[in-house]
Design brief:
By secondary structure, the chain is mainly alpha-helical. It contains 6 helices and 2 strands. A two-stranded antiparallel ribbon has the order 1-2. Strand 1 and strand 2 form a beta hairpin.
């Protein structure tokens, strides 16, 4: 009898492990939503978490078009356009013509935006640093590698350290 991946022996144990992982992700995402809400308000009073996420993506990706940003965030282009307009109105990003194609507008973070982003993230980075203070550096590196592998669909091997593509973090 041929087993498909889903039917292989021991799959009940694998299904349980994956279910527990999904529950852990659900808990972690709830914490991320709370953190993003607080960080957004710290960056600019009244800022919504989605706008803060867009600011972080713009900072990571460098000069980026609205279409590329929408693709990267899997976001509605109209909603993202309003978020970018809000960020521009508070001086956190600027739009400029693409030097290679003047019809295209590039979005990039301003020094003020970078400063507000760093200030908003600092309490949570400090909390994470404290939480992981007793973890061996190799465990932190391994966890980071596994998360990147999961996000990109790469199958990790026991001792591999996954190196993400330059723009593959979110």
């Amino acid at each position: 009898m041929t087993h498909t991946r889903a039917d292989r022996p021991g799959d009940d144990t694998r299904r349980r492990a994956v279910r527990e992982l999904e529950e852990a992700f659900s808990e972690l995402m709830g914490e991320f939503r709370r953190v993003y809400t607080q960080a957004a308000a710290a960056a600019s009073p009244g800022m919504l978490p989605g706008t803060f996420k867009a600011l972080g993506a713009i900072a990571r990706l460098g000069p980026v078009t609205l279409s590329a940003l929408a693709d990267r965030l899997t976001a509605d282009k109209g909603l993202l356009s309003r978020q970018v307009t809000e960020l521009e109105s508070v001086g956190m990003i600027e739009r400029r013509a693409d030097p290679d194609d003047g019809r295209v507008r590039l979005i990039e973070i301003t020094p003020h935006g970078r400063e507000r982003l760093a200030a908003a993230r600092e309490p949570y980075q400090a909390m994470l640093l404290e939480t992981l203070d007793d973890w061996p550096l190799s465990s932190i590196d391994r966890l980071t590698s596994l998360i990147h592998a999961l996000a990109s669909g790469v199958v990790p091997h026991a001792d591999d350290v996954f190196e993400p593509a330059p723009d593959s973090t979110s």
